[in-house]
Amino acid sequence: MGGDPGSGQKGDRFVIEGGRRLSGEVRVAGNKNEALPVVAATLLLKGPVAIANVPRIRDVETLLETVRTLGVTAEWTGPNELSIDASRLAAADPDRDAAGRIRGSFLLA
User: Fold this and answer.
1) What is the pLDDT of residues 9-31, one digit of tens each?
2) CA distances from 43 to 7, 80, 84, 90, 108 (A)
C-alpha cells in the first residue's frame, strides 16, 4: 500500500521527519463504515458477540434499534463496547421506519 508523502496515495504508515525520535501509542478510533457491517454480521451467529471500539453515533444507534425489531438483543456494555445476541432472531424483515433512517440498513437485506 505505501505511497510517497504528498503523492495523494493512501498509505498504511506515517512518515515523520525531524530530529527527535518519537515513541508512544496512538489509539485509532472506530468508525461507522467498519462498525455497521460488523453489527450486521453478528446476525449470522448464535450466541452473544462482544464488539469493542464501536463509535457511539446516530447511525450505529439506529442500526441497533433496527436489529432489535428483529428480536436481537443489543446493548452497550461500555463506552464503546457492544454485546449483541442474535439467538432469538425472530423476523426476517427489519422495521421499515427504522431501516429507512440510515443507508447502512442495506446490510440487513
Assistant:
1) 556 777 878 888 878 887 777 88
2) 41, 19, 8, 11, 9
- Determine the distance from the C-alpha atom of residue 64 to the mean position of all C-alpha atoms in its chain, rounded to a whole number: 11
Contact by Cβ (8 Å): 19, 9: no
Confidence band of 2 (pLDDT split at 50, 70, 90): very low
pTM: predicted TM-score of the whole model, two decimal places: 0.70
* Cα gap 65→98, rounded to integer Å: 7
The C-alpha atoms of residue 65 and residue 44 are separated, in whole angstroms, by 17
Among residues 48, 51, 102, which one has the least CA distance to residue 80? 51
